[in-house]
Automatic annotation (TrEMBL):
It comes from Lactonifactor longoviformis DSM 17459. Keywords: Hydrolase, Metal-binding. Zn(2+) 2 binds at residues 147, 180, 208. The keyword Ribosomal protein does not apply. Belongs to the metallo-dependent hydrolases superfamily. Phosphotriesterase family. The modification N6-carboxylysine is found at residue 147. This is Phosphotriesterase-related protein. Its cofactor is a divalent metal cation. Gene3D superfamilies: Metal-dependent hydrolases. GO terms for molecular function: hydrolase activity; zinc ion binding. Binds 2 divalent metal cations per subunit. Zn(2+) 1 binds at residues 22, 24, 147, 266.
Amino acid sequence: MSVIETVTGQSDVRDAGHCQPHEHVYITQTPALLTNPELRLNNLAASIKELKLYKEAGGNTLVDANPLATGRDALALKTASEVSGVQIIACTGYHIPVFYTKDHWIWDTPEEKLEEMFVRELTEGMFLGGCYGWPSYQTDIKAGLVKAMLTQEGVSGRTRVLLGAAGRAAARTGTSLMLHTEYGKGALEAVQYLTELGLAPERILICHVDRQVKDLDIHEKIASTGVFMEYDTITLFEFHDNESEIRMLQHMAGKGFLDQILISTDPTADRLKSYGGRCGMDYILKTFIPRLKECGFTEGEICRITRENPGRALGK
């Protein structure tokens, strides 16, 4: 039986249902909130209300994409899951620099120690806190995914150390790894490095490549490695409209990559209805999928993108 590791325990991957693999449910205790108001998802009641709207629209599972020491709260995520009925997969790993102070331990902890921390969060339980000091209180709520990122420097310097710790932790535990990229830059080099560490391409989810939907050559090159293309900028209309996103999806499906496509919204507070935003976590179900159907995607193809592919990408 293939399973997914959720904040309420393991679940049969066949019960995952509609799954959006890059969402943000609740964020607290991070310096990023001080200067980035769009990241202030720190009202648990509002977060639960948003999850309920997602559930009512047909959503069943999602990934909360904030990892260790970036405002992730394992206890809050478990409560939100239990109250809303939505299965939540939490992340360990590391995130973009805005989430950390300049003297944060993420920048100087040895790679082996970071790897062990990530493995512990996957196999024993996630830690609370960590935004301002080394975390000490460990819960029994396990992470089910590893988060990693690339900056403009690519796979070099400190980023290479962090990516190495994340990749080895994922490979050791049979867990998938979600890789934040800037428009897909550096993704090919990162995939090569991660596979050298023992992580199979089908265990890797590449994020944010659809922040640009004009040059599809890079999309094809990344997908040709066998990774999942996590298209997560739906509702980010400053990058593109729905029609451009759908043309990209049609192109990639036509090139034979349908079974590697995932879709999500990567929301901030200004795009979550329960925080006064404009779209909602249920936007894909209520607006985007109907538009996919109008543009020729069949029920079977949509099921593969929103149910079968996430199950393969996140199950172990």
